Amino acid sequence: MLLKVKNLTINFKNDDGPVKAVKGIDFEINENEVLGLVGESGSGKTVTALSIMDLLEKKTCCVEGEINTSFNRVRGKNITMVFQEPFTSLNPVLRVGEQVDEVMLTHEKASAKEARSHTLELFRKVMIKEPERVYDSYPHALSGGQRQRVMLAMAISLRPKLLIADEPTTALDVTIQKEILELIMRLKEELGMAVFFITHDFDIIKKIADRVLVMKNGRIVESGLRKSVLSDPKNEYTKKLIDAVPSIGGAFPGKGKKTGEVVLEAKDLTKSFYLEKGFFRKHSSRISAVSEVSLKIHEGRTLGVVGESGCGKTTLARLLVGLLKADKGEVRCPEKNIQIVFQDPASSLDPRMRMGDIVLEGLTIRGAKRREKELVLREILFNARLNYKDRMKLPHEFSGGERQRIAIARSLAVKPRVLILDEPVSSLDVIIQKEVLGLLKDLQKELFLTYVFISHDLRVIEYMSDDVAVIENGRIVELASREKLYESPQHAYTKKLLRSVL
Amino acid sequence: MIPILFGITLISFAVIHMAPGKPTDLVTQLNPKVSMEAREKLNKIHGLDKPLYVQYLDWIKKIGRLDFGKSFADSRPVIDKIAERLPITLLINVLSIFIIFIVSIPVGIKSALRKGAPFDKISTVAVFIGFAIPSFWLALLLISFFGVHLGILPVSGIVSLDFEKLNLLQKIFDLSRHLILPVFVLSIGGIAGFSRYMRQSMLSVEHQDYIRTARAKGLPEKEVIYRHALKNALLPIITILGLSIPALLSGSVIVEKVFSIPGMGLLMFESVFMRDYNVIMGILIVSAFLTLLGNLLADIAYVYADPRIRYEK
Fold it and tell me: What is the ipTM of this complex?
């Protein structure tokens, strides 16, 4: 036994009284094992981890219960943590190398020279290419994957007994996600440390965990060996979580041949962005976001668009709806009735507008009568599985899933024929993700909609699409029917993407 | 920078000339013996009878040759008049920027770290008062207390009458004694503002992920604050400091008037009353230039402090 948590309770002091984040949990972590902690956001996973690290602010939280370790718990030395957000976890104004040096300098009282050579050694261990160059870089010059490697280097600096990894791969692209997971597992073997791995994704658990804890609303609802939990989950919630994980190779009913008319067509779409437009300089560098993309979408079908972050998916979505003007090429949409749903419902809805007004705004600006709007609102909210009674509420009073349904309802109000869905479920928990995807499928059938579904997640793409376009560096590298693409991918990049699915 | 400077001169020129009164009024209108003809003759000599845009073009042509013209009041070259006053104003302003920095940054940090503690509450009230006090009133109050009531500090001027006879050490001491009150009055508003900015900036940095990372590394709290948090918290302060230079310069007009300090601010004040166009415009150009220079310096400092801006591929 390495660490034992007994009756851990964490309360946050709030203006309206205390909020119970963790309600008396017990668990152990054994030496050299990987313990997975699964749960949806808000279930208390991160708070539990932070309390083990003793990183919760004393002013705002109250931690009760016992946390015992078989070793002397020194934060940053023998118990370390890697966080979810690689883009904000490193200090932007300090060199990356210095930030890793600090661990040695603080705990071992090493000299600057020793610390530097130790850091370079660590960089090699976490497979950072060109360690010297990275050492002198600032965080913004590194990619997400590189930053997460730097965070890992920091964490394993002094051979910790326990590494806590809080969703370390959630913010990364699939291909990099796989590399980082493999790296963590290799380091675990090499250094003989235990890993406490927090995630919402059962696919990751399947791959790496020895034992699993499932957490819901601050309580542990199920725990056990990975195999038994996965094959024979006892708790309803665990079952739901496992079921909700989209998987590749499911038999989804296809829609058969393309029969309907073409409702959206793009020809040779090209768009570049210019950096550093100054008073004297016109532009110093050009970034080509989308180049020569041609698409044809038939009525009632779903085209999946998949690619890694920065590949030009979102730019393409904006070009298709007309939010951006293409440098070259054209978009043809005979009915001119096209709408878009964005990734983050929390920031794409106006926080000061009431739900009903948000949904109807498209009609309001077209000068619809009040009675007509009322009728449409009832119908649309019914379709989007939203409650008509909630129409006077503000966006923050809804949950993430409800907010995304509001965004969908808003796009439906003007009766579009084509809907562009730009990562509509990426910021949602798996269970809610499944609900929203189900809703989208139902709506497509009921209203005979045509979708362009953009995502980085091949599993979701497979679930939703009839045809799939794979985008790399702004170009479509492969475009095929779903069955064909998943069974016999042609392009090397498609193969790489498929391989990185866990 | 050049286009902005150009715009500033155009607008100020127009505004000043449109205001009622002319530089020649002092000798003409206020003097009943002067005839109409004499007055027009005088206007003609100074070119004041031409249309406004012609006057502006004439003036800008001269500025192009760095010729600021002559003062209407005493016919001395404007450039000389400014040159003898500018160092004093700069001295006062640089000193108060310095004081603002060394006082407000520690105060801001401390109240941010102990948010809600007595120190934070007291400093909040002090800042409130500092903001609200009119500087001329505070200046008069200080003069009457330290200068008249206690009699320990001089009430006006920048040096004593016997300055020339003193040795170097005594000169510095004399100058400092004269500077204490004006610099204090000029700094007080800045200290109030900047300690607030600093507090706010520090509070927002404190909850950043990289601060949590620094703590997770096991760094002592001192290093977390002074190495990781402070560097980031200072970034917005640099920009605000650059932008606050005009406020300081305009503040020094009031302070120099109240303390009778022969700086550029006082010269401006007097020139405005005498409608001494050339001097006013000269001072405006110098102030505008200093302001733009301050912004440029702030931008350069920002580039130096924030690697994200420095970075180029």
Answer: 0.79
